[in-house]
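User: Can you help me understand a structure? I only have the sequence.
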Amino acid sequence: MKLGIASDHRGFKLKEELINKLKDLGYSIIDYGTNSEESCDYPDYAYLLGKGIKNKEIDFGIAICGSGIGISIALNKIKGIYCAKVDNAHDAYYTRCDNNTNCVSFSSLKNIDEALEIVETFINTDFSNLEKHQRRINKVKLIENEEYYA
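Assistant: Let's start by predicting it. Here is the structure, written out as tokens:
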């Protein structure tokens, strides 16, 4: 499995720790930046990660910023990217099982064990394929394409 990861300056340290842990577990990782703790803008790295997902360079994306919120918002502006900001493994499980998301984001305040649990839960959970969840996802896609009529 090939994973992509991106962060802003606040998420840089956690991103580096997570890359090392994931590589030790045998995952292939593409690092979309940033590459230091120098102040930067999260949309720049969200864009690179989102394009990596969209272009099928990676199977799933992992995004980290101070809160996990800003980078998630930026990722969700890219058509076909469905990023959920999660706080724990429970959230990570349900965003994959129910929403079939292709990217997860979280706060740089997570410790490495929490971050690793979130990522492993996210990437190892399959979409349920339940009709009710697919129906809802299809409606989200209609909204994304400005074709939704309530």
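Now, to help you interpret it: The first strand starts at residue 2 and ends at 7. The chain is about 45% helix and 15% strand. Let me know which part you'd like to focus on.
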